[in-house]
Design a protein that fits this description.
The protein contains seven helices and no strands. α1 packs antiparallel against α6 and α4 runs antiparallel to α5. The chain is mainly alpha-helical. It has one domain. The mean pLDDT is 79. Keywords: Cell membrane, Membrane, Transmembrane, Transmembrane helix, Transport.
């Protein structure tokens, strides 16, 4: 249980520091925030994922955790399609977007810190990211 609290505490700390820097005008305008966003998205996160994958064993990368996560995401997407079809029919594109949204898990932004602190291993996250990108 402490691991879950530590994982979320790190996320909340990063959010709090960003908020504080914005309130103190260290990060002043939208352009500066966009630069930090792009550095995190295009440089820091891929570097972190590369580091995690390079240090992981095949056993970690091909674990039952990935199968369970994939099956649950696909199952929830299918449930959405069924509910959508019978209770609020929409066009095919809207149904696909809804199903994708239901099956999506925030495995990158929240998954990495929680995976490290709860599971003790962040190697479970990159395969799930790959599954989400493929589907």
């Amino acid at each position: 249980m402490i691991g879950v609290a530590e994982g979320f505490a790190i996320i909340l700390t990063v959010i709090g520091v960003g908020y504080l820097l914005s309130r103190l005008k260290v990060i002043g305008n939208e352009e500066q925030r966009l630069v930090l966003n792009k550095v995190a998205f295009y440089a820091a996160t891929p570097a972190l994922i590369f580091t995690v994958v390079s240090q992981a064993t095949p056993k970690d990368l091909l674990s039952p955790v990935i199968v369970a996560s994939t099956v649950s995401a696909v199952l929830i997407a299918c449930v959405f399609v069924l509910i959508s079809r019978f209770f609020f029919p929409t066009d095919r594109a809207s149904t696909v977007m809804g199903a994708a949204s239901c099956g999506y898990v925030n495995s990158n932004n929240i998954g990495l810190p929680v995976g490290i602190y709860v599971l003790g291993n962040a190697a479970y996250v990159p395969p799930l990211l790959l599954v989400q990108m493929v589907f």
